[in-house]
Amino acid sequence: MNPHTVKTYGEELDQLSAEVILMGGLAEAQVADAVEAVARRDVALAQSVIQRDQRLDELEKDIERKAIRLIALRQPMASDLRKTVSAMKIATSLERTGDLAKNIAKRSLVISESEPMSGLTRSIERMGKLVSSRLRDVLDAYKGSKLDIAQAVWSSDTEVDEHYNAMFRELLTYMMGDPRTISACTHVLFMAKNLERIGDHATNMAEHIHYEVTGEDYMNERPKLTTMEP
Amino acid sequence: MNPHTVKTYGEELDQLSAEVILMGGLAEAQVADAVEAVARRDVALAQSVIQRDQRLDELEKDIERKAIRLIALRQPMASDLRKTVSAMKIATSLERTGDLAKNIAKRSLVISESEPMSGLTRSIERMGKLVSSRLRDVLDAYKGSKLDIAQAVWSSDTEVDEHYNAMFRELLTYMMGDPRTISACTHVLFMAKNLERIGDHATNMAEHIHYEVTGEDYMNERPKLTTMEP
């Protein structure tokens, strides 16, 4: 006997959003902790990020199961259906965000075994703070159905790309200057790429919120930085 | 008036699978062409891959819309519901596969401007052929609900990882040997990473097929290569 069957329709919808918000808080913490593990060469913190990722996987499966059940049994229409679908889609973005944070944590373990590269890890820290603030904003937008915040996150996507491109150039210089650092630098390069992709997920979530609130399928063409670093 | 409303339930389910199979064929071609564009330094082919990606995005949206509509209006149960959900999930994996192929095509344009690195691009070609065959197999498994093929794709995931790790080592050697190639090599590194991720999507699709056919949520713990290259 499934306890949810005694819930009302509205309660089920609210529970779905609440679970997405919970998941969002955890994903945000995973990103912040992964970046801190890099900055502080904190092996224990990195390992806890890696271990905690599973919780996000479970939450995503649970949200998806509940959303599909709700669609099948309650046949939500219009804004309720959009709310249910965007919960599913945002949960998917948050699960991917967690995977990327986990990967950053894993790489932090690898580079913690080589010489510190303070300049580079400080850049990762700066980029991490920027991406974390995007995540925080988009989750606020989701909580309060705030279109203006979602729009702001969506428009600021290029800022993350600029950080990434700057890091890419910084890494090339570093590697060319001291080829012995190339192996460690490739890990930093992937960390930066992961942060950029987390920024993309924040932008995608902003689009889902826009769709949920307005019913318009997509925002205008996303602002993308033209760059030699595809 | 939506033409689907006059379709029968069975017809709608079949149409959903047919659209996923169509999408799969296109995604497979995108990967093969992207890799060929790298190997042949074929700018025109790379540009056509980039331009064709949009079709995959449209197909994913269409499959998702139809699947959600089917869940809401037909309330499929048991195996029909699994079939509908896995169509949605496989479409998502195929859309991501297309994005990764598009990114490989974009990077091929960048490296086509620098000195040929035949050894490296041959390795990309080999890895691309392996990943393409995984995609082909998993799509065959989907078409025929063939559990054994899905299982084989799922178990062979480590083979792609081994290729990636070998390429990673090859790239490090190349970069250290001639630091002027570092910039171009980072693009090849991301190409290899993209192919590895396409391989992961093939594995995910195999899991969705397993779920669709058996109703068991997941296969046993996925075989993952332990590696210094997370």
Automatic annotation (TrEMBL), chains A, B:
Alphabetized UniProt keyword annotations: Cytoplasm, Phosphate transport, Transport
Record GO biological process: intracellular phosphate ion homeostasis; negative regulation of phosphate metabolic process; phosphate ion transport
Record-linked InterPro entries: PhoU, PhoU-like_sf, PhoU_dom
Domain PhoU: start-end pairs: 22-107, 124-208
Chief place where the protein resides: cytoplasm
Keyword Nucleotide-binding part of the UniProt annotation: no
GO annotation, cellular component aspect: cytoplasm
Pfam families linked: PhoU
Subcellular location: Cytoplasm
Superkingdom in the source lineage: Bacteria
Transport in keyword set: yes
Subunit structure and binding partners: Homodimer.
Family: Belongs to the PhoU family.
Role of this protein: Plays a role in the regulation of phosphate uptake.
Name of the protein described by the UniProt record: Phosphate-specific transport system accessory protein PhoU
